[in-house]
Design a protein that fits this description.
12 helices, OB fold (Dihydrolipoamide Acetyltransferase, E2P), 3 domains, globular, D-amino Acid Aminotransferase, Chain A, domain 1, 5-stranded mixed β-sheet, alpha+beta, 30% helix
Length: 378
């Protein structure tokens, strides 16, 4: 729809996309684009208490690959927590999830951190995560459990406190920083927040120092690192090549298309997942393979219930579902496969965890998968 409106209004698609991401969707900006043109879209500026679609990253194979693609880079810890966007106007603070839901009551620690910032009005991008006393992270599901609670928040806060690490600033007082380069946005963060609230960060051009920073992040129990171009503008909703994520293993966020009934001790549970990547060109999903690995009994029970709620068809062995559930899949590599329409299949795929914080439109695309395969195969 964004591209259709752009063509009909004779405007660049990126201009319409940015307005839609800030203005709350294409429905909000289509009439302005079609009747008034580009000048009308300037009114869709970033605003307090109106969550902006978060900027996303593309995967890189390893630190060497990332540094070749972004030679002058800022490296930051990649935390396996909950993405949060924090809006502040004086003492009023609202916290939004990556899908735009207001989760303020669940995270009083994040509210306190925002109120301590040395600015009257702010929009911050960051990651909230539950850390153990040693500094090691709790599993992702435990952090998400904090955001799923509406009762006993203080008790949860005492036993599993949240930490927040901010890595971007979209607004400071009356300044819209979305068009500013990443280096300036991070400088703004440093001027307003204590170091304990900032994501650990290293600006380097040499590979050994970058590799050491990555190794240290892994040793502390984190997912890996983000590698960001210093001149990157904040691109709401885009999966930008200016931000790269480097993890210990390849991972993709895929959508469950169907599942097969299990056997033996898994009888009665939907077990073998059919996994698909998003295909923007065809407005659908491309299957990349199946997996039954990495699932606990609790996960099998949960996913069976959730998949049956989304059932659209079935045969003797397989239940087909609406493509809504996003699952993070770890895998070793990709191989060419005539079996699947996209021509590629995952090797040694296993479930890392479901991502209830993501929608199907946030899943990785088949173009991302093809890019990984191209780099892998040289």
């Amino acid at each position: 729809m964004i591209e259709a409106v752009a063509v009909a209004a004779d405007l660049p698609a990126e201009t319409v996309r940015r307005a839609a991401m800030i203005g709350g969707g294409i429905a909000a900006v289509a009439q302005s684009a079609l009747t008034e043109g580009v000048s009308a879209l300037s009114r869709y500026a970033i605003a307090l208490f109106q969550p902006v679609a978060p900027m996303l990253a593309q995967p890189a194979d390893d630190i060497d690959d990332a540094m070749k693609r972004i030679p002058m880079a800022a490296l930051e810890w990649k935390l396996d927590g909950a993405r949060v966007q924090v809006h502040k106007d004086g003492n009023e603070v609202r916290i939004y999830s990556r899908t735009g839901n207001d989760v303020t009551p669940a995270a009083p620690e994040v509210v306190d951190a925002a109120r301590a910032a040395r600015a009257q009005r702010l929009i911050l991008d960051g990651e909230a995560i539950a850390l153990k006393a040693s500094g090691a992270p709790y599993p992702f599901q435990d952090t998400m459990r904090r955001f799923g609670r509406v009762l006993d928040i203080e008790a949860m806060r005492a036993t599993m406190p949240l930490s927040v690490f901010f890595f971007d600033c979209l607004r400071r007082d009356d300044d819209d920083l979305v068009p500013a380069p990443a280096s300036a946005r991070f400088d703004a963060l440093g001027a307003m927040l204590p170091s304990a609230s900032l994501i650990p960060r290293l600006v380097k051009t040499d590979l050994p120092a970058a590799q050491a920073f990555y190794d240290d992040a892994l040793a502390r129990g984190h997912e890996g690192v983000m590698v960001k171009a210093l001149d990157a503008l904040y691109d709401p909703g885009a999966r930008s090549a200016k931000w790269l994520k480097v993890k210990r293993a390849h991972t993709l966020d895929l959508v469950v298309l169907a599942a097969e009934w299990g056997h033996g001790r898994r009888r009665g549970w939907l077990s073998n997942l059919h996994l698909g990547a998003r295909d923007p060109a065809r407005s659908g999903f491309v299957m990349l393979g199946k997996t039954f690995k990495g699932m606990t009994d609790a996960m099998l029970e949960w996913q069976t219930g959730e998949l049956l709620k989304r059932e659209v068809a079935r045969d003797e062995w397989t239940v087909r579902v609406r493509p809504e559930l996003v699952v993070e899949i770890a895998f070793n590599d990709l191989q060419a496969s005539p079996r699947y329409p996209g021509g590629l299949a995952l090797r040694f795929a296993r479930v890392k965890g479901y991502r209830p914080d993501k929608k199907a439109e946030d899943a990785d695309t088949i173009d991302t998968v093809r890019a990984i395969y191209a780099r892998q195969s040289g």
